[in-house]
């Protein structure tokens, strides 16, 4: 494979150990003669000179060879050559320094710090061979607190001093300026490097973090930007070799004197060992030199603090699913991808460390024991972990031993019981990554499928290779095509236009694209991505041809679909292709302020024969293909939720694209193909009952197409309104708002956990169409029909009705009558759906419908009043509908004249009488109220109440209507109703707090006020119904206080005399009261306790007052007390209290 002109360079082997500073023995004698300075070609030079052959060779050697190999290869190396190799061995690319000093490296649309654009990314080459940072103080990084930004500030403010490079070791001091809380501090910094990689760092600040501190950054950037100001010396062993014995002794003694407190014990120990002939130190030839570079066997990778990686991941995981910790872990995943893109072997090393901590998360075993699923945020982190491992093992240039090591590790993790499963649900799984999926047989036995973990796809990807010659040609050339003479007939390698195809399981092929892109081969990723899209196009057209042929031959009965969807897939194939294609079309923004939506421009497809293809148009096309794919709903809550989330993510990205003529043309073409498509299109004529709905996708298509092709937009959206999973199970009534805890589909299909979300998306699509169709009666009628046919939730239809009403009645404009009628029609459907079912929003719905009908006008109100029985319960019709229609506000709102008011009132009265006939218990009072102004209607309503009084009405309902009658000036009718109510009442002896007592007292007071005859008529009813002594005595007392007949009924004469308790009708009441007291006394004494003795004595006192109203009452009471003493003589204390009070 090639990137641009050259072959992809082989990757260095991956090692998972942290490399120590080089201390290999150095024996070679030093060459004589002076060496050149740092060399020409620095960026500060006004005129750049071409690099010398020495510099060109030294750069190549410094990057690829360990210095020990150079020494072994050549017996004598001139000092100038050594100097140039040492000079070029320091890292040259600031992007790499930034990568190891901050999480946030994305700047101006690029995932890394801003570097000079005069050379290919990752090469580090600019004039003079030194990478520069253009405007780094303003644009590199995205936060002033990041170590990289702070390091730049320290460098630019002159805080780096005493910089010295001795061989492969760089040292210097960095002064941290004083702040309000901290004094100025100077830190000593030391950096070891080898083959353009920093292999170890030491700083006096004691930084403990994954990334380099700002002081290491400042020193590194000083060396990159100002190499001519750095004192360069050869490895110290070379300098020592040039000294004689006296000079060496003087050097050692001066060194010990300068650092005697730290060096003296070590110096004495070494001296003792050297003087001992049998010591280990004398068995080794030469001596170690930390400045002499790495040995051949040393690892060549950037310094990475493994312990800190482990600690930070462990800390983030321990914080649970909180936003901050999840964000930090995602940043670490992004850092791994950045390392892969820079072809840095630490990417796999860091991911291994992260995975080890993920697998050690104690919550995994807890979740497994409890049988509960992990949180969504945690699940998404595991998904990204699995996808990253697929990228790692698909590295096009990893060695077989590396892949074997990864596979062994992945199997070890995957075999652990606590390893999370791919579907997040401990349920059935999808087929193997390397196999194309069957297109039928939906009822596969899930128990036969093997256990698949989050690492299974990565393990399967280990079986993939890059040696296929056709694949190699695809990714190595923009102009790979079949010869013209071979384009006739079928081909598995090329389409009819001669462009290459890549026939592979689509998610697997896209995983290859993601791997190429992730490992720093963007051009190759684009080439393979284009081949995949050409394959999808060809398959789409062939499937359409087959479907059309089958359709002509015979009717389509059985419907097949894709078992595995591309949207929501663990490998995110559509998102991968879309990102790869749009990345090359993105216009970079130089401003690093607030994040803005991306801006794209068309980039022609390299090697396209007609030059008419654009990567941006291809990105749109593949997104439409993937979103429009008909696929079966996956099993499990997480998998279904992931489908919805992934769909919304892709739509968000599509909405960021500004549609021009070319993109609109692509959109129309693909929309038509999806509409015409057979069982492999989610927008085709026939779809499987279990297919994922297209509502979210169709809403985007509708909004995007509407300004350009309204007919096509409506056709698509109306087709997408269907939700077949509800069709065969929806009852004729209301489905209710979707909170379906149980499956509504046959058991062999998965449960639809996200049905509520899907129905709300269906509702949003309908609302979007209603808004767009405002004013167009024909379109509104079509949309209305689709809503009534496909939406089965009354709550959602009500929401649509409310939305339509709101849009149709703007605050500062006249209402849109067409849309108002649609809102009313939807409201009427809601009424019919919820009439026979329980719905807690029913009253709100009824009130809203009356409001909507009022806005529509008189005819709408008359219509709902006349057809009330299909829309409302009798109670709703009278208490809410008719009452609101007849209110003063409604009359004013409609500006009705007298005939119109009469028409409306007549309809309301007719409704009231019908409701009273149907449900007199709940509607009689409302009917009487509504019919007050029409004598005939009022009499009819009264008669309905009288007829129903003896059968279905309760005493409380009758008392309420009786009070209403008295209030309206009909006391005799009130008396009649009160008498009827009394026949339904029964007050026991101990119900002295019964809610009906007030009604009984009121009825007796009413009868007393009407006259002796009415009182005589009601007292027998009271005696029969009321057995509570205190209530009867209260009635008796009130009847004796005033003369009857004070209501002043016209035509009646009243004597004005008080009534006697010795004569009827009060005599009957008195006897009943005394009898009630006697019965109540015996009942209370049966279960009385000592603490109630005082209360009982007071009760007897009240009884005596009633007894004394009779002529021989004192004799009766005395006899009553004597009987108590005899019957209850066992209750000595109580009887003693009775004797004390009553004798």
UniProtKB/TrEMBL annotation:
Keywords: Metal-binding, Zinc, Zinc-finger. Coiled coil: none annotated. One of its GO terms (cellular component) is Cul2-RING ubiquitin ligase complex. Residues 31-41 have a biased composition (Pro residues). Residues 1-44 are annotated as: Disordered. Pfam families: ZSWIM4-8_C (PF21055). The keyword DNA-binding does not apply. GO terms for molecular function: zinc ion binding. Residues 957-1134 form the ZSWIM4-8 C-terminal domain. This is ZSWIM4-8 C-terminal domain-containing protein. The gene is ZSWIM5.
